[in-house]
Specification:
The protein is 49% helix and 9% strand. By secondary structure, it is of the alpha/beta class. A four-stranded parallel β-sheet has the order 1-2-3-4.
């Protein structure tokens, strides 16, 4: 019998730098980096992001889902003018903007676009009292969007809202009945269904 040993490749910061630099040199279109250590197993550190931002004109921003507000602050402080930092963690959209991010690439906004947009607009205008109330108001909905691996809950929410058919490609599959019931309760509370 053949034994297959899985190969684990966790890149170094230098490897990440060279990878994104190679992508930058291979394409002419502007693009953003997506830093999501919870899924990739490696954080793109602020120093790596800044080096890429300064050396690669078509790397125009980053979706920051590290959850590290010090890292976000370092990037927004030191990035070249025009480099866009977007929150990639819905529960941290407001704190990220307060640290200099300009917006968010949001999961929750797929189900509640108006509410999420208003929060971002108020935060960017400096209306922190309103933005803080909206941020707190979205907490339970944000949490519900991550009852299981994204995009399973948000696709289920959109299905329950009558917006899409419920369809998943493996290895994604339907939510457990218990989590689907929790999601339905939250959507009902928010008057979304």
């Amino acid at each position: 019998a053949m034994v297959i040993t899985p190969y684990y490749n966790k890149p170094t910061q230098n490897g990440l730098y060279h990878y994104f630099k190679a992508v930058s040199e291979a394409v002419e279109i502007p693009f953003i980096i997506y830093n999501v250590p919870g899924r990739t197993g490696v954080n793109i550190q602020a120093e790596t992001t800044l080096k890429l931002a300064n050396e690669c004109a078509n790397i125009v921003g980053i979706k920051e889902a590290s959850g590290d507000l010090v890292q976000i602050t370092t990037i927004t402080r030191d990035a070249p003018e025009g480099f866009c930092v977007m929150s990639g963690e819905d529960a941290l959209n407001l704190p990220s903007i307060s640290c200099g991010a300009s917006g968010a690439i949001s999961v929750t906004a797929n189900a509640a676009p108006g509410e999420c947009s208003n929060l971002i607009k108020n935060a960017n205008k400096g209306n922190y009292k309103e933005a803080t109330a909206q941020h707190k108001g979205l907490l339970e909905l944000n949490n519900a969007m991550f009852l299981e691996t994204n995009p399973i809950p948000v696709k289920t929410a959109l299905y329950l809202m009558g917006k899409i058919e419920l369809e998943f490609r493996l290895p994604m599959c339907k939510m457990t009945e218990e989590n689907a019931a929790k999601l339905k309760d939250v959507l009902t509370k928010y008057k979304m269904i």
